[in-house]
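can u do me a favor
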């Protein structure tokens, strides 16, 4: 009976650990897709800005990369 109780406790702990690990993996995947989506939106805005106003796009690029923008 004691061995059976030990296996039951082990199964319950393993079940909760499995749920925790899968929850963390799901959170990481969701966070990854959110960041990827926001990066795609930012890149689209940057492309539109580059077509409309290339000088402003160069300033944005310089601000993101940390370099000084060339003045024209």
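np, heres the sequence
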């Amino acid at each position: 009976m004691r061995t059976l109780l030990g296996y039951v406790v082990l199964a319950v702990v393993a079940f909760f650990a499995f749920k925790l690990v899968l929850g963390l993996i799901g959170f990481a995947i969701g966070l990854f897709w959110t960041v990827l989506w926001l990066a795609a939106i930012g890149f689209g805005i940057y492309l539109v800005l580059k077509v409309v106003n290339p000088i402003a796009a160069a300033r944005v690029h310089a601000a993101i990369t940390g370099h000084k923008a060339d003045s024209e």
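The mean pLDDT is 91. hope that helps!!
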